[in-house]
Design a protein that fits this description.
By secondary structure, this protein is of the alpha/beta class. The protein contains 13 helices and 13 strands. It folds into two domains: 276 residues, Carbamate kinase, CATH 3.40.1160.10; 95 residues, Roll (Archaeosine Trna-guanine Transglycosylase, Chain: A, domain 4), CATH 2.30.130.
Amino acid sequence: MTSISQDESSIKSDTPDTYRPGAVWVIKIGSSVLTANGRGLDVALIGDLVDQMVEVRKSGVQIVLVSSGAVAEGMTRLGLKVRPASLHMLQAAAAVGQMGLIQVYESHFQRHNLHTAQVLLTHDDLRSRERYLNARNTLKNLLSLDVIPVVNENDTVVTDEIRFGDNDTLAALVANLIGASTVVLLTDQKGLFTSNPDKHAEAKLIPSAMSADPLLNKVAGSGGALGQGGMLTKVNAARMAARSGASTVIASGREACCVSQLIQGRITGTLIKSESDLLVARKQWLAALPAQGVLHLDAGAARVIRDHGRSLLGVGIKALSGDFTRGDVVSCVDEFGVELARGLINYSAQEAERLCGQPSSEIEKIVGYVGDDEIIHRDNLVLLA
């Protein structure tokens, strides 16, 4: 019998507020919550969760929904009793199930006069800088239009080599993508326990922990102390989200008010907190990426970036080097060759070269389309000197 020792109880810590107006939450709902004991989607429960998410939105928090359940719904629609073993049959079930899944969400959100948008991603979409930037812009634009993005892995085209593997990981990556403050992982467990509650009566719910605490692996590890069936993936996802500055809540999606109570700072589950501030963590992530090119700035541009942290405009660039595309990381150096900053560039090397020394008002005329006014926006720029 395994239980956490007195020393290990230090995994608990104070629970901070998880709500602040203007924040973005990524809410992931697992198949174990969405499905009604193998009978397809639990439409009534989904309706209740939608009502709670709408309540959260009315409090000033934006929501991106990451939803499992497509394969399970597809199996029900196709009359399959056993989960397919082949990838191609899983892809077919997912394609059929996505129709039902998005229909249920759309109908429930429509009760509140809200629209949903289906966003299907693969790992390649988040590894490629250009596609990463496009996905981020799409999600942010949907949020600005008061649309609820419903994100899932694009099961119909992925292969074993590029699968996210689970939607917990996908939720953490989406949190990084859009700069979310909180990830909510809804499952059939009440949270993370000191030992397996199905086997050990003395198991206690862990209300909160820091993401770097090594004891998390011990209590969530598969096969060893706990083996809670997927809890380790949730801990790993929480750590991934924490690197972007987001905290994670693991809770039961079948508990009453499991989502809506979060806006009051009440958590019936486990909170895994990030050690870093959201902005600091994102800047650290950006600074660690290798530069694909170099922008040589004039004295004025170098000064406003160094002293005021402003965006970089084309008029302040004297020359550039390297072969990069939109969304790549580039280095910004002053007239003495000292690296001042790194950032995600909004134009390719060929386009940026034509924009050197030019005002933003000339961008459309020069490159042939309406792009960003900034070569690098200040939100995507980290100072190094």
